[in-house]
């Protein structure tokens, strides 16, 4: 009989070690996940659009994400519009804006996490100009251009 007790004791000890090992692996996985998402995904992003159109033109802009509709905005010539948001943990955050002015129109991705987390990090600046909408990277270099589509006809 003492051998049976001994076998059960050994078995309990082995199961306890396995459980502790699994718990340690789970804790390491959770810590790694939190560290990676904190390092990769910015806490807050500020996105801005400047109106540098010629001839004193106003710029009509309407920006949205899957969760937020920022409403229609009229940016006066020389004016500035900005908003901030948090990038989701999966880094799938997307804001797109519809633009309309005398130069043309278009709907463009103004913040796409898969592109912009590294490109412009936590401050993404855009400007509307005669040839289209220019994006600036984290070094404030003009590195992206959405060209205007033909101007929308007035109804």
Counted up, domains total: 2
The SSE string, one letter per element, is: HEEEEEEHEEE
Number of helices: 2
Terminal residue distance: 95 Å
Q: Give the beta-strand count.
A: 9
Strand content: 35-45%
Low-confidence residue ranges: none
Family: Belongs to the plant self-incompatibility (S1) protein family.
InterPro entries: Self-incomp_S1
Protein name: S-protein homolog
Subcellular location: Secreted
Q: What is shown here, in short?
A:
The chain is an alpha+beta fold.
State the main characteristics.
alpha+beta, Immunoglobulin-like, 2 domains, 40% strand
What do these coordinates show?
- The chain is of the alpha+beta class and 155 residues long.
- It has two domains: 1-40; 45-147, Immunoglobulin-like, CATH 2.60.40.
- Helix content is 30%, strand content 40%.
- The protein is built from two helices and nine strands.
- The chain has helices spanning 2-40, 113-119; strands at 45-51, 59-65, 69-75, 80-85, 94-101, 104-112, 123-129, 132-136, 142-147.
- A five-stranded mixed β-sheet has the order 4-1-7-8-9, with no helix packed on it. A four-stranded antiparallel β-sheet has the order 3-2-5-6.
- β2 and β3 (69-75) form a beta hairpin.
Secondary structure elements and pairings:
Layout: H1 2-40, E1 45-51, E2 59-65, E3 69-75, E4 80-85, E5 94-101, E6 104-112, H2 113-119, E7 123-129, E8 132-136, E9 142-147
Parallel strand pairs: 1-7
Antiparallel strand pairs: 1-4, 2-3, 2-5, 5-6, 7-8, 8-9
